[in-house]
């Protein structure tokens, strides 16, 4: 098989190589975060498309509950991409939501806290958590 025939066969089932980039971006933008990360690992062309589209990561970053706008603004001001900003704040968001929901309200001592219950957060975030605890 000639090189061009092999390449043609490889690309025939890959929609990223067949449709305009705007269509691929639209398709990928419909994926949840876990599916987007999985899609990025599917093949090189999908990975390049997803990795190079900051908009895909931006939408997921902005939907994270519990992340302060200041944290996002600081990361963006420091030159981090939306993808890096998302990954820097993902676990912070999960931890903050757990604290705000009262998951750790009835802990008797710090030794009873799960290892992943603490995460470096800004003063505003810890203030929100403290306010929520005081209301309980």
UniProtKB/TrEMBL annotation:
SUPFAM superfamilies: F-box domain. It comes from the Eukaryota. Residues 13-60 form the F-box domain. The keyword Transcription does not apply. One of its GO terms (biological process) is protein ubiquitination. Pfam families: F-box-like (PF12937). Pathway: Protein modification; protein ubiquitination. InterPro entries: F-box-like_dom_sf, F-box_dom. GO terms for cellular component: cytoplasm; SCF ubiquitin ligase complex. Keywords: Ubl conjugation pathway. PANTHER family: F-BOX ONLY PROTEIN 48 (PTHR12874:SF9), F-BOX ONLY PROTEIN 48-RELATED (PTHR12874). This is F-box only protein 48. It comes from Geotrypetes seraphini (Gaboon caecilian).
């Amino acid at each position: 098989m000639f090189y061009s025939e092999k390449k043609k066969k490889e690309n025939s089932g890959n929609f990223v190589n067949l449709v305009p980039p705007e269509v691929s971006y639209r398709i990928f933008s419909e994926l949840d975060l876990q599916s987007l990360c999985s899609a990025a690992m599917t093949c090189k062309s999908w990975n390049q498309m997803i990795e190079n589209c900051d908009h895909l990561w931006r939408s997921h970053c902005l939907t994270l509950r519990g992340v302060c706008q200041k944290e996002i603004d600081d990361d963006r001001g420091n030159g981090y991409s939306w993808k890096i900003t998302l990954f820097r704040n993902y676990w912070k968001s999960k931890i903050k939501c757990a604290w705000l929901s009262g998951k750790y309200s009835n802990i008797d001592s710090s030794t009873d806290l799960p290892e992943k219950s603490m995460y470096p957060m800004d003063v505003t975030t810890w203030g929100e958590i403290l306010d929520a605890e005081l209301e309980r």
